[in-house]
Amino acid sequence: MESVKSLTEALVRAFEEQTFLRKLAMSRADAAALILPQEWDAPLSTLLPFEKRLTCEKALEITLPLMNRLTPPPKEGWMVYAYHVAVSLLYDGADVEHTAAQRDAALCYLNILQVLFDAEREALPFDPQFDFAFCTEEELARSSTAEEYRQFLVRFRGEYVYEAMRLGREVTPFRTLEHIAGVHHVAMSIMRPYHACGGCVDLPLLSGAAAGHDIGKFGCKSGERVPYLHYHYTDQWFTQRGLETIGHIASNHSVWDLELENLSSESLALVYADFRVKQSRDESGQEIARIYSIQEAFDVILSKLDNVNYVKELRYRHVYAKLLDFEDYIRSFGTDVTLSGANTPPPPKTDPALMRPDQVVTALRMTAVDHNIRLMHRLGHEQLFANILESARSEQNAARLGAYLGIFEEYFTYWSASQKEQTLEFLYDLLLIPDGGVRRRAAALLGRVLAGFNSGYKKELPAGAEPDPADQRPFVLWKEYLARLIYPDRRLTPMQISKIRYAAKLAVDSLLSYASRADGEVFAAELFRHYADPRAVEEDAAFALLDTVVNFPLSQCSEENLRFFTDFAVYWLENGGEAQKAAAMRLLRHLLEAMPEGATQRDIVRSAVSEAECGISIPLLFLQSQLCRRWGWSLTEQEAFLRRQSAVRQRVSSTT
Length: 656
Prior knowledge:
Layout: H1 2-14, H2 18-21, H3 28-32, H4 37-45, H5 56-70, H6 78-90, H7 100-123, H8 137-141, H9 146-158, H10 161-171, H11 176-196, H12 203-212, H13 226-240, H14 244-250, H15 265-276, E1 277-281, E2 287-291, H16 294-304, H17 310-331, H18 357-380, H19 382-393, H20 398-411, H21 417-430, H22 436-451, H23 469-486, H24 494-514, H25 517-529, H26 539-548, H27 559-575, H28 578-591, H29 600-610, H30 618-630, H31 636-655
Antiparallel strand pairs: 1-2
């Protein structure tokens, strides 16, 4: 009876754990009195030895005396109620129908289930539809997300995620456990040999994402569309627990995420595994999970897609082709994708000179996949990414800085929010370097990163959901960076301030070119705010603001915003220095295209331009005469002066 004794001791320890006791409403003394070893020997002996999977119903039979001592059963029964209690640990929900004692009893049942499932796991062979082969300490030692993964496992166990999935098999028609465990098995089975042969993958990051990728299904409420909304709830669960790195991979596992050009190996492996593990129905209508080949999975999923049309099928074939490329790439490392365990050493490489044309095409595809995965591995992990940024910051050569920018332009889309914010700061710092080409590319990329900050396949939100604060982050950042572009740090030199202000228009042009129409309106609204009161703006900042919107898309300009720009430009045409007047007339020339004939603003512009004091400044006189010609006016004196200046320059040029 040694096994019964050890199981009883495990129960006693489980009821003494602080994480369990903190969940209870009863006192610790009362909880300690629940598990008396002499009372559990006989009930536990009926379960041993474990020869097949334990059912939650069988476990309930030996737990009922304890639960009934605490409280009468709930009307829906203990198993259904315990399932809902487990779900409430994942997603908070008010419960006014049950007593605190009933909740305590359900928690005791969940705790006992956990101990029994631990013992079952040790006694029975590994089953990919029930068990998780989590990462070993050796695998954790080589991971940059080891600590976050450990925290994930603590949450996974402490919130009874596995127990909820086992209960769900018996009290709901769904087989969430078989699917999640199957996805974890496929992902880890193909990536462990890949990693052993030198492949770039963070196994704990993948394991945590695979084990938690569908946890959001427990958060979906009755009547909600689970296939579309569980991504949102998955992200919510990970984010609220500070597991953002794993959550970023876990919540972006839709096949449509493959439409992004560059994904990390962890994301590709998770989407691939999720693609292969699908649910179907048996003859009785019961849901069953099965691991398919990639081709079989494609046929199954295509038959289940909502509202399939030609365009949607083409999209699906595109992502399917990317999964095939990924599978071929994994196989090139000797991985057995049939999961039979027949992994082999990587096959020898064929010399390119000896390749047939079809082999050349395949080799080029595999090289491209390998390049993207290795680069995304470096760029997608916080520490490696920070190292790359640090190297780029210390680079002085313009050509090599341009190479860094080329990489960022290509790969920034799928970075985490934290990485994008680090990139924005790096790009802003580049606005100070001497090379103008690098500065212009940095400014344009700054706008692109902000425009694409939340890019990717947009997940559906539940009705009445609070706006995600992350969705507002790019607008908050734009407010900050716009202020820093127009009003740089006063400790900088005049030359450095000038460089930064010049970059503002490049950032604005890029931002509005790449932003969606809805986002563009929000970004533009922040820009318009700076033009509301021209008297409150200093001269140099006014020049920067006038120059920033000289190419502003007038289609995004409302009548009120057009008035803001016009009043701002007219004010500085009347009160500014030569630089401000020149910038004001350039802006007014642009704005006139959007002003209808007979508009009041048009008359204000005519008056301001015709009365502008240009002195003998050739640029100002030239701009003034250009604008006046639009109205059919002739500034005889100014044009005569410009002709004389032109003649003088020609004579000087001919004599030299």
